[in-house]
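User: quick one, sequence for these tokens?
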């Protein structure tokens, strides 16, 4: 197999949670372009169906399926539907995230965030991971955040209406890195790799004071765009990274290295 062929996802059945959000939409395009039989799954099936239709118009294989990852029955239903349609699962990208906690004072938001982002992450990794392990080869990629690697920089938000970021996101993304290491150790003897990818901030027309300060924190002097994440995810899903597991890859323009 040539070096370039090792990066291909051709004929691999990949589940991507989310798919219509800021990071997710670019990931759908890139993974589908790499040849994957891609299943995108979340609660907002209408938004996913629109994304899938756009990709199929470009001759990409993308299927939208319903998923509430905090509901075990929904996770099992997704597993069974994918196996019924495709017969196998080769990869899982844990990309979906809920942001119910809007301030540091929201106890209810914290509880709901734990239900979706902690318990839900466990449920889908546990059940889909078992299928991949039974096949003896595959890859799980967890989409974390550089905010799981560093403390918050509240000064970035000064003079804007963006508010103070709540603590649940930092808790989940920090925990995801060690969650990745745990499942890398558990799944490794069965031929399945588990890695984490920690992106930096994504440009979304943020206020100018924030953008100026944020860009100065990076080495590339910019935020991420829709094409900045997919290559790394393809690498971690593909045979090009077949001896990499338990790793956390920062894709942040140098923010955490500066």
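Assistant:
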């Amino acid at each position: 197999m040539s070096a370039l062929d090792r990066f291909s996802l051709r004929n691999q059945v990949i589940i991507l949670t989310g798919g219509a959000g800021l990071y997710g939409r670019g990931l759908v395009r890139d993974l589908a372009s790499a040849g994957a039989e891609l299943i995108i799954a979340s609660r907002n099936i209408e938004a996913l169906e629109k994304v899938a239709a756009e990709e199929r118009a470009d001759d990409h294989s993308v299927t939208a399926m319903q998923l509430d990852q905090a509901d075990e029955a929904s996770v099992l239903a997704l597993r069974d539907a994918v196996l019924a349609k495709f017969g196998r699962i080769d990869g899982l990208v844990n990309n979906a995230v809920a942001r119910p906690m809007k301030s540091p004072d929201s106890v209810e938001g914290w509880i709901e965030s734990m239900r979706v982002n902690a318990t839900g992450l466990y449920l889908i990794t546990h059940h889909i991971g078992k299928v991949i392990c039974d096949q003896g080869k595959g890859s799980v990629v967890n989409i974390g955040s550089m905010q799981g690697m560093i403390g918050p920089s509240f000064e970035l938000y000064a003079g804007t209406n963006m508010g103070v970021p709540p603590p649940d996101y930092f808790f989940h993304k920090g925990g995801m890195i060690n969650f990745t290491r745990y499942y890398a150790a558990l799944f490794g003897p069965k031929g399945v790799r588990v890695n984490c990818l920690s992106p930096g901030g994504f440009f979304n027309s943020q206020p100018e004071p924030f953008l100026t300060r944020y860009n100065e924190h990076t080495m590339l002097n910019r935020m991420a765009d829709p094409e900045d994440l997919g290559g790394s995810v393809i690498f971690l899903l593909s045979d090009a990274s077949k001896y990499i597991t338990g790793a956390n890859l920062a894709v942040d323009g140098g923010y955490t290295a500066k």
